[in-house]
Specification:
Number of helices: 8
Distance between the termini: 48 Å
Structural class: alpha/beta
Number of strands: 7
Largest sheet: 7 strands, mixed
Shape: globular
Strand order of the largest sheet: 3-2-1-4-6-5-7
Radius of gyration: 17 Å
């Protein structure tokens, strides 16, 4: 790839309705779980939009609040018309991206990367020189990003054991170091604690301030 950074990727970010998203955070954050899910999506989208390698971000969601907030920062919203789960949403988003932006690569990015650093995402995208590439998550079994070059089907296989599923399908893992923020998706309280250590975006930081306030009694309720 040339040293000149050209915006050549369309990112597709699937966002589940926050009322039901991130259920594994409910035990630790029952009061703030929906707000955290919303904040993760907004911070992930904002970091992606700032990358010089990203031409556009398509957020696939039926959540009206998420839709309004990501549109306000420059993303495009694609309704989750299939309504058949994560991979269906990604296939739909990828099809829209291919139709609207022919000649550009398409990358599916997890919506729960609140510590995402634009520079790290850009480094990953620059390394996506194979037909299909993917980033293995921090635990080592899942996937946080799957990229396909222009004209190449995305063929998403997210879910339990997706890292192996993507590799078996022919996608190549990105072997960069120092991309912790791209690998740190958040499903559990421990994941969130690690993301906070890395440094979360402003939307997530605001919610975590509410969590701290609730924990210390300033809201009158434990979180």
């Amino acid at each position: 790839m040339s040293d000149v950074q050209v915006a050549s990727w369309i990112l597709v970010i699937p966002v589940k309705r926050t009322a039901i998203a991130k259920s594994r955070l409910a035990a630790a954050y029952p009061q703030h779980r929906p707000e955290l899910a919303h904040a993760f999506a907004v911070d992930t989208t904002a970091a992606a939009l700032d990358s010089p390698l990203v031409y556009a971000v398509l957020v696939v969601t039926d959540d009206p609040v998420v839709s309004a907030d990501v549109t306000a920062i420059g993303a495009h919203v694609v309704p989750d018309l299939p309504g058949v789960g994560l991979n269906g949403a990604l296939e739909h988003g990828a099809a829209v991206a291919a139709a609207q932006y022919p000649g550009m690569g398409v990358a599916a990015l997890s919506a729960d990367l609140p510590a995402l650093r634009t520079a790290e995402l850009s480094a990953v995208l620059a390394a996506c020189t194979a037909d299909r590439s993917f980033v293995i998550d921090e635990p080592g079994t899942g996937t946080t990003m799957l990229a396909a070059g222009p004209g190449i089907p995305l063929d998403p296989r997210f879910g339990v054991g997706s890292a192996l599923a993507h590799q078996t399908s022919g996608a190549l893992p990105i072997a960069l170091t120092s991309i912790d923020s791209v690998r740190r998706d958040v499903d559990t309280a421990a994941d969130l604690a690690h993301a906070v250590q890395l440094g979360v975006g402003p939307a997530t930081a605001d919610v975590m301030s509410l969590v701290l306030g609730a924990a210390t009694g300033s809201e009158g309720l434990a979180c």
